[in-house]
């Protein structure tokens, strides 16, 4: 038996427990982990040199597949470079199995190379952190490895899903001997985790329906989520009971009459208009919402009751109005509510709905906002805002769209998508950082045959351009890069835009383009600098091809900031 047979068997446990993708970062200390993953016939591996990019590529794969992805690196600061992706995965509830090779414990802080304190290195940003023994021949050590790896994978997939860390001390020799054959023990122990499905007692629903009937103005708000079936049941509830359903673009809930322009009209300063929309009862689900206007609106016009539906046991209350936390799946809750309310309505024979007038207010504001915003952008100057509108309008159906943070996701949320396009939205809104957008989109594209479009700003792109530093860039990847020569959000938000240090210390102006990066990476490069060129380029840009493509939109940052200020003035007195 090989000295590190217990380590090689980690790959077999992963394969049998459906961890079929591993991101491998080069290094010696992790050689046994790398070799076993690379040689296992049922595991797809990618070699990514930059650990920060590697972490986000793994996250992007897990976003699409919903399956646990393994990340593997050598000892020392390599493991720290996984941290941004691990934190994003934790708050976005994405399953990752993070395996960090390490020195044996007696060599920590002994002036030995690539040695840092790696136990619990990710702190609270993993569901749990484990450490394996440094010696793997004793039967108890084999038992511990099998037990820990099983537990870690099970934990990554149990609700709420998330990253789990295993620190793996390994002594030399790291590599198999010349005649040693790496084998996988098919009889390795597999521990299944039988999870339960939570249900609610009848007493809860009786109380909920009592509150429901007592409230005239009811509202449903959906935060970030990827549940594809939720649109159907929420449409039924909205249509049958005249309930406004508010959906950010990252909520992936889209249907006719969904309220998607709330971020636009809730920016109004008209108190009478806003007060007319104030709810008595809100039911929320999903994770974060993009719209700051919505959060401020709910915090100011506080509902009497707020039910939040989430399986995550943490008490999360961004609206500061929570009255009831309901730890069940969103699908189960809304399907039960719709079925029960529909039956109650049938028995009572009452077609009148007290929420009709309230729903009409929201629907009218939504429709008016969409038309008014479309007209504004049609007649505005070439700018970031207008280019995002053009790109979203031309995006092919059934695509995946990965939105960058900062202004990219905000513009897209204001504009929205047609309900008929069936476009799935991903965005790293767990931490809302800019550091892994491009890498995550690469991971998305590696996991599907669908077209994957990444909308990203120049600062985010150049910060993460090592996403292109690999040999796996898929032909279904399309990157739309908005280059305004700096962090233009600081020209738009109040505060930094009034400071003398704006250009040098906030916007941090730069003159880079992506042309050379694309040439080095073998990515087809296109550049446009006006609306006519953009319209002409989009058709060929979105066509299927065997080569990744990048379309760089050169825009003026100051003009874009002025266009956005005009937009805000236009809707400041919306009624």
TrEMBL record:
<dbReference type="GO" id="GO:0070204">
    <property type="term" value="F:2-succinyl-5-enolpyruvyl-6-hydroxy-3-cyclohexene-1-carboxylic-acid synthase activity"/>
</dbReference>
<dbReference type="Pfam" id="PF02776">
    <property type="entry name" value="TPP_enzyme_N"/>
</dbReference>
<keyword id="KW-0479">Metal-binding</keyword>
<comment type="function">
    <text>Catalyzes the thiamine diphosphate-dependent decarboxylation of 2-oxoglutarate and the subsequent addition of the resulting succinic semialdehyde-thiamine pyrophosphate anion to isochorismate to yield 2-succinyl-5-enolpyruvyl-6-hydroxy-3-cyclohexene-1-carboxylate (SEPHCHC).</text>
</comment>
<comment type="subunit">
    <text>Homodimer.</text>
</comment>
<feature type="domain" description="Thiamine pyrophosphate enzyme N-terminal TPP-binding">
    <location>
        <begin position="9"/>
        <end position="114"/>
    </location>
</feature>
<keyword id="KW-0786">Thiamine pyrophosphate</keyword>
<dbReference type="InterPro" id="IPR032264">
    <property type="entry name" value="MenD_middle"/>
</dbReference>
<keyword id="KW-0464">Manganese</keyword>
<keyword id="KW-0474">Menaquinone biosynthesis</keyword>
<protein>
    <recommendedName>
        <fullName>2-succinyl-5-enolpyruvyl-6-hydroxy-3-cyclohexene-1-carboxylate synthase</fullName>
        <ecNumber>2.2.1.9</ecNumber>
    </recommendedName>
</protein>
<comment type="pathway">
    <text>Quinol/quinone metabolism; menaquinone biosynthesis.</text>
</comment>
<feature type="domain" description="Menaquinone biosynthesis protein MenD middle">
    <location>
        <begin position="216"/>
        <end position="330"/>
    </location>
</feature>
<dbReference type="Pfam" id="PF02775">
    <property type="entry name" value="TPP_enzyme_C"/>
</dbReference>
<comment type="pathway">
    <text>Quinol/quinone metabolism; 1,4-dihydroxy-2-naphthoate biosynthesis; 1,4-dihydroxy-2-naphthoate from chorismate: step 2/7.</text>
</comment>
<dbReference type="InterPro" id="IPR012001">
    <property type="entry name" value="Thiamin_PyroP_enz_TPP-bd_dom"/>
</dbReference>
<dbReference type="Pfam" id="PF16582">
    <property type="entry name" value="TPP_enzyme_M_2"/>
</dbReference>
<dbReference type="InterPro" id="IPR011766">
    <property type="entry name" value="TPP_enzyme_TPP-bd"/>
</dbReference>
<keyword id="KW-0808">Transferase</keyword>
<dbReference type="InterPro" id="IPR029061">
    <property type="entry name" value="THDP-binding"/>
</dbReference>
<dbReference type="InterPro" id="IPR004433">
    <property type="entry name" value="MenaQ_synth_MenD"/>
</dbReference>
<keyword id="KW-0460">Magnesium</keyword>
<comment type="similarity">
    <text>Belongs to the TPP enzyme family. MenD subfamily.</text>
</comment>
<feature type="domain" description="Thiamine pyrophosphate enzyme TPP-binding">
    <location>
        <begin position="430"/>
        <end position="543"/>
    </location>
</feature>
């Amino acid at each position: 038996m090989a000295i590190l047979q217990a380590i090689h068997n980690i790959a077999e446990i992963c394969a049998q427990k459906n961890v079929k993708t591993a991101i491998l970062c080069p290094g010696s200390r992790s050689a046994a982990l790398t070799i076993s993953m690379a040689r296992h016939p049922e595991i797809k591996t990618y070699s990514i040199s930059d650990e920060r990019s590697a972490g986000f590529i793994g996250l992007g794969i897990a976003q699409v597949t919903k399956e646990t992805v393994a990340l593997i690196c050598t000892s020392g600061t390599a493991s720290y470079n996984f941290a941004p992706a691990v934190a994003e995965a934790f708050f976005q509830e994405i399953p990752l199995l993070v395996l960090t090779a390490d020195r044996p414990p007696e060599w920590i802080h002994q002036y030995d190379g690539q040695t840092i304190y790696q136990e619990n290195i990710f702190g609270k940003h993993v569901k749990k952190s484990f450490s394996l023994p440094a010696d793997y021949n004793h039967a108890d050590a084999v038992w511990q490895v099998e037990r820990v790896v099983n537990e870690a994978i099970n934990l990554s997939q149990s609700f709420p899903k998330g990253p789990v860390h295993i620190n793996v001390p390994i002594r030399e020799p790291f590599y198999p001997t010349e005649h040693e054959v790496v084998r996988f023990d098919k009889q390795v122990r597999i521990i299944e985790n039988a999870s339960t499905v939570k249900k609610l007692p009848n007493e809860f629903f009786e109380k909920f329906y009592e509150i429901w009937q007592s409230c005239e103005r009811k509202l449903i708000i959906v935060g970030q989520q990827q549940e594809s079936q939720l649109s159907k049941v929420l449409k039924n509830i909205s249509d049958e009971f005249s309930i406004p359903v508010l959906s950010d673009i990252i909520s992936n809930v889209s249907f006719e009459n969904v309220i998607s322009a709330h971020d636009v009209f809730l920016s109004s300063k008209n108190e009478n208009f806003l007060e007319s929309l104030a709810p008595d009862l809100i039911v929320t689900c999903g994770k974060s919402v993009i719209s700051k206007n919505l959060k401020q609106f709910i915090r100011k016009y506080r509902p009497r009751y707020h039910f939040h539906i989430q399986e995550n046991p943490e008490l999360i209350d961004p609206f500061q109005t929570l009255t009831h936390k309901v730890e069940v799946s969103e699908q189960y809750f809304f399907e039960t509510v719709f079925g029960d309310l529909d039956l109650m309505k049938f028995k009572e024979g009452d077609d009148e709905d007290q929420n009709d007038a309230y729903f009409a207010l929201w629907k009218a504001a939504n429709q008016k906002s969409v038309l008014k915003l479309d007209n504004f952008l049609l007649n505005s100057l070439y700018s970031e805002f207008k280019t995002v509108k053009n790109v979203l309008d031309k995006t092919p159906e059934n695509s995946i769209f990965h939105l960058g943070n900062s202004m990219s996701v905000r513009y897209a949320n204001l504009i929205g998508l047609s309900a008929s396009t069936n476009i799935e939205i991903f965005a790293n809104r767990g931490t809302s950082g800019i550091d892994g957008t491009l890498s995550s989109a690469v991971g998305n594209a590696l996991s599907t045959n669908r077209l994957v479009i990444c909308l990203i700003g120049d600062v985010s792109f150049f910060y993460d351009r090592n996403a292109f530093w690999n040999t796996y860039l898929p032909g279904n990847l399309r990157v739309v890069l908005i280059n305004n020569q700096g962090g233009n959000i600081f020209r738009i938000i109040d505060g930094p835009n009034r400071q003398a240090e704006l250009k040098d210390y906030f916007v941090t102006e730069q003159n880079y383009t992506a042309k050379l990066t694309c040439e080095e990476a073998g990515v087809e490069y296109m550049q446009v600098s006006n609306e006519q060129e953009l319209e002409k380029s989009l058709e060929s840009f979105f066509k299927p091809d065997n080569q990744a493509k990048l379309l760089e939109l050169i825009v003026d940052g100051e003009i874009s900031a002025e266009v956005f200020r005009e937009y805000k003035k236009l809707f400041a007195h919306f009624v």
